[in-house]
Amino acid sequence: MIHASPPAPPLLSIEDLRVAFATRAGTVEALRGVSLAVAPGESLGLVGESGSGKSVTAFAAARLLDRAGRITGGRIRFRGQDVTRLSAADLRDAQGSAQGSAIGMIFQNPRAALNPIRPVGLQLADVLRANGHSRAAARDKALAALEAVRIRDAARRLDAYPHELSGGMCQRVMIALALAAEPALLIADEPTTGLDVTTQKTVMDLVARLTAERGMALILITHDLGLAAQYCSRIAVMEAGRLVEEGAPGALFSSPRHPYTARLVAASPTPTSTLADLTPGAPPPPAPARPNPPAGTPALLEVQGIGKRYGDAAAVEDVSFAMREGESLGLVGESGSGKSTLSRLICRLIDPSAGEILFEGGSIGAIPARDFHRSPLRRAIQIVFQDPDGSLNPRFSAFDSIAHPVRRLTELRGEALRRRVIESAGRAGLGADLLGRFPHQLSGGQKARVGIARAVAVRPRLLVLDEPTAALDVSVQAGVLRLLDDLRREDGLAFLFVSHDLNVVRMMCERTVVLQAGRVVEAGDSRDLFQAPRTAYTRELLAAIPHFRPGAAREPAEPVA
Amino acid sequence: MTTLAAGATLRHAAWILRGNPLTAVAAAGALILCLVAAFSPWLVPYDPVASDVSVALQPPSAAHWAGTDQLGRDLLSRIVAATRLDLAIALSAVLLSFAVGAVIGAVCGYAGGRLDRVVGRVVDVLMAFPLFVLAMALVAALGNRVENIVVATAIINLPFYVRFARAEVNVRREAGYVEAARAGGEGHLAVVLKFLLPNVLPAMAVQISLNLGWAILNAAGLSFIGLGVRPPTPEWGILVAEGARFITTGKWWLVAFPGLALMLAVLCFNLLGDGLRDILDPRMRT
Amino acid sequence: MAASRPASSRPASPWAGIARRAGRRLASSLPALLGVLVLTFLLMRVLPGDPAVFFASGPNAGKAEIEEVRRQMGLDRPVPEQLVRYLGDVATGHLGRSMTTGQPVLTDLRRRLPASLELTFTALAIALALAIPLGIAAALRPGSLVDHGVRFLCALGVCVPTFVSGLLLIYVFYYLLGLAPDPTGRIDVFAATPPDITGFLLVDFALVGDGEGWRNAASQLVLPALTMALFVLAPLARITRASMLAVLGSDFIRTARSLGLPPRRVVVTYALRNAILPVLTIAGIVFSTMLGANVLVEKVFSWPGVASYALDALLASDYAPVQGFVLLMASLFVLVNLTVDVLYGLADPRISVE
Which domain of life is it from (chain A) (predicted)? Predict the structure, then answer.
């Protein structure tokens, strides 16, 4: 990999690029003058939150803007040639087929990025033939391409369709496709979003190795600072259509110059950060005054050998754990580990197939889920959902959404109800002026706060949080996490925090349970578990988290095997 | 708070109508049709059933804008008089099947399981019939009366509403706000009635408008083949059927004008439905 | 998991998958067919008119004679028993006898079915041949003149009832221009008797090499087929356009473009093959609609098909032909769905492993 070699003429240079999108609400400026350059063989990380314009920049460079998007100003040069007004096909011709396609791209959601009804081998052959290989040579080349991305049993996979491959495997095929045209620059647009953390590591290691071997430049677009820091030699930060700062990852993250970068770096969880680090400002409230319960007090929640089967498949199998009053317990695992099913079982939204759920010593697992809404304990167990968009009724104002459970589950009416709603909203950080708004008039963070206010408005004893911040940008996430932690300390609420993000769980939870394929792999005190994991699976999970150390001085991108 | 939403919806509708004048025209056309239906007795230039053989089979003229039929009846008056009956049949049929279909479909879509499979199978059986043939058989079986045209049209529309409501509810039953409502203390039935149906209704309203056109065509088709409404009652399908006998001798107006009335009515409701879909689709909102 | 499926079983698997799917569809169609049978049976029992009176010697027949006929026909039995008998008859191929033609219903239907099918297939072929290119052209340039034209045509197409468009076509091509023959039946009354091989006149004339007869039959077929085609053009063009637009906006088309595939390959191999899948499904539904619309078109053009046969029987309170017709329609519908399933299975590898 080539670090810090400014004399090389840039492979791609973008000068004061402006892109506008025609929408039904009029023209929206997505890029407001972006300039950047990528040298041959360099790896550049383009980071920013949603709406920052990082993907638009890449699509403009790769000539893939859709019809609504238009370049309104600026210049894109590739190998010194102005390609701003060229179509994708012209660009290929201009570069000459001998050099192959100029820019290759891999995308978010790899399964959707592949033609669903064409075997992957043929898709590879299509690219190879478009780049001047003969039909006969194409198949051998395709095989070699699949082997290069480390797909086992490549000869047989040539005939496979995308739906027969896992998500990580699809992304490898996508990489093989992008590289088949032998591009000089590879753009990876959030290539691992939606993939599990262990798959993410293998995919990114592969990208890094292949680009390095072939001397290709790489632009990695991501919202994950850790990922960018680990795999890129230079990082550019974007905000609201502008590039606000760029530099080597070590310097950029240890001493950010732009206030936005500083906020972003502060808000990103690291293996050592605490909640206080994420949200500079007021110190956390005093430690919870939790008197030791008298001996013999039953646990707040106890789950014994619980299981849930759907047909032949077990989503959750033989899971047991207990929680004390006011405790925070993290439930982590990759997709398919059964953590969401488990959270719905405990909330009594679905019925278990086996096992027992005890709340303060009394069985609640035996009450059918369809009758649980009449149980007095309905009020005691509440849940905050993952997707802030889907979890609010589009026809309810924020006020109505928060008031609904209060009306159903408490005796409060009229002015008392109104006061409770406004108070809960205030504690969730929502001003009273926002309460009249409907979901489509609220931002993602505001919607998440409505969901939290709704759950705490009936004063529950146990709050289940199902990936409460997974859909939020990091800066918003930091605020929401802090809010949740404050609520817990003030009210003595118990938290069951379900997440795939180990850094978040480590900060939020006193104890952690690791799930894999519906079973508990490891459970214990968070500090011990994260510092000295006992099982190989937990170690693997922890090792796969991309990270950066803002405190460290200059840190080169880790060499990848 | 509701006025805020209503205001926003109205503003949004106005904005859509400006950008899509066709929908505005369609809405105006539908309104005019309803007015014509309501006031047809006062609008017709001649008595729609009074015959005058001396002016039989006259092409359109200043006196008879749409010409006259074989009995010398004024065709324009008959077309205008028919509007009320045609719209009434279509509207009552569609509302009937909507009311029944939405509830059945919503309950099945939410409950899933065996009930859903059984209802799904019945719907499949209904749809396995070529539906027009089913309507024919129903009218013949129930009796050749106007009410039965309504019932037959409602029944052949029913599977579409059941399917539609079922699918719409099905995609929403896993939505967070449904689970949140249950965590907030609502039972299953309340969730369907208070949370899911209101969210499905706008999409169903679009379906109603689109189905109105289809219902008009069906009712007219039934009377064209001699079922349901009987001559001399003016009805668009009957008017076309009567004119059919004279088409090979070139009396085009007897078919063209009632046909045009049918076409315009259906076009209005279809365009209105398409426009409504744009207005109600929250993804299109800003 | 699908990911671990051995790919070596692949060559056999699509057909096995399709066969499984078709078998499942057939099995699940049987209750539906049975339901259709029971439903038509019950419907026909409540039809007005007493067939016993009809079959007796005449309106003046004595009460005893009518009772005798009723007994012979089994109409004095309880309804469930009549139903079981009816089902037994259907299972053994006895659909009863038409009172109006005096022939067994099966014979009548067999004689008239080719006329209806020839009309329907020709119309579907015309509609598909027009709708798919139009839909594609509209989707490739959304917002263009072509697109607006196609959308206008679609909006208009669904509004014109077949019986009106058929009559207007007769007026223009028969009365005004004199291009089309007299709109009565499948063949000119003065033409030579057609050969009776398959019942499909175009096929039969072609088989015996009778060019003039073929042209004659074709000229009779054009207007009704066109009427029907205009009726179903709109939904087909609409779904083609919508599905093509959706596919063109999908991620894998963006991938294909980013990989620099030739535009032709992107549109035809990548977009069209995916976009055709929903069109297949809709074509099946459209075919069923056409079976119903046949009633109107056959009446307008005095076409001697099964639908006009059933309509005449219905208006004459003649049970058996209507029952037979409805059963025939339902069976055709099942067949069409099976065909669509098989085609879909060939076109989409995903369904073979569902």
Answer: Bacteria
Which pTM does this prediction carry?
0.82
The pLDDT value given to residue A124: 93
Mean pLDDT per block of 10 residues along chain B (286 residues) reads: 56 68 84 87 80 80 81 85 90 92 89 83 72 81 83 89 87 85 89 86 81 89 84 86 86 89 91 77 44
**pLDDT tens for each residue of B121-171:** 778 767 766 788 888 878 877 777 888 889 999 988 888 889 888 888 888
Residue C8: the pLDDT is 39
Could you say which residues from 202 to 261 on chain B have a Cβ atom under 8 Å away from some Cβ of chain C? 213, 217, 220-221, 224-226, 237, 240-241, 243-244, 247-250, 252, 255-256, 258-259
Go through the domains of chain A in sequence order and give each one's CATH number: 327-349+375-543 (3.40.50.300)
Percent of chain C with pLDDT over 70: 89
Q: Please report which confidence band the pLDDT of residue A553 belongs to, taking 50, 70 and 90 as the band edges.
A: very low
pLDDT at A210: 93
Are B130 and C36 an interchain contact pair (Cβ–Cβ within 8 Å)?
no
Cβ contacts from A onto C, under 8 A = 100
Range list for CATH 1.10.3720.10 in chain C: 112-315
Nearest of A70, A64, A75 to residue A101 by alpha carbon: A64
CB-based contact C7 A159, cutoff 8 Å? yes
In a domain, B6, yes or no: no
In the structure, what pLDDT confidence band is assigned to residue A556 with cuts at 50, 70 and 90?
A: very low
pLDDT band at C99 (very low <50, low <70, confident <90, very high): confident
C159, C289, C315, C328: best mutation site toward chain B, by most B Cβ within 10 Å? C159
Collapsing DSSP states into helix, strand and coil, what is residue A237?
Answer: strand
Question: Whole domain around residue B77: which residue ranges?
Answer: 70-284
Residue B104: closest CA among B145, B59, B165, B149: B165
- Per the CB < 8 Å rule, is A117 touching C10? no
Residue of chain B whose alpha carbon sits nearest to that of A375: B185
In terms of C-beta distances under 8 Å and separation of at least 24 residues, what long-range contacts does A35-39 make, across chains too? A35/A74, A35/A243, A36/A236, A36/A243, A36/A246, A37/A10, A37/A12, A37/A13, A38/A10, A38/A11, A38/A12, A38/A13, A38/A185, A38/A217, A38/A219, A39/A2, A39/A5, A39/A6, A39/A8, A39/A9, A39/A10, A39/A11, A39/A217
Give the distance from residue C352's alpha carbon to the nearest chain A alpha carbon, in angstroms. 11
A300 CB burial (10 A radius; 0-12, 13-18, 19+): buried
- Is A112 in contact with C251 (Cβ distance < 8 A)? yes
Arch. (CATH architecture) of C112-315: Orthogonal Bundle (1.10)
CB contact under 8 A, A394 and B183: no
Q: Measured between CA atoms, how close is B194 to chain C, in angstroms?
A: 33
CB atoms C257 and A88 under 8 Å: yes
Residue C12 has pLDDT above 70, yes or no: no
Structural domains in chain B (count): 1
- B29 inside domain: no
Ordered DSSP codes for C57-80: S-TT--HHHHHHHHHHHTTTS-HH
B58 belongs to a structural domain: no
> Which of A391, A389, A504, A472 shows the shortest CA–CA distance to A50?
A472
**How much of chain A exceeds pLDDT 70, in percent?**
90
Give the tens place of pLDDT for each residue, C259-313. 888 888 999 999 999 999 889 888 888 888 888 888 899 999 989 999 889 888 8
Q: Best interface-test mutation with B: which of A395, A422, A459 has the largest number of B CBs within 10 A?
A: A395
The tokens describing A430, both together, are: 């929502």
Is residue A393 within 8 angstroms of chain B, CB to CB?
Answer: yes
CATH of the domain at B216: 1.10.3720.10
Contact residues of A toward C, CB < 8 A: 62, 64, 66-67, 88-89, 92, 101, 103-105, 107, 109, 112-119, 126-127, 130-131, 153, 156-157, 159-161, 163-166, 169, 174, 177-178, 180-181
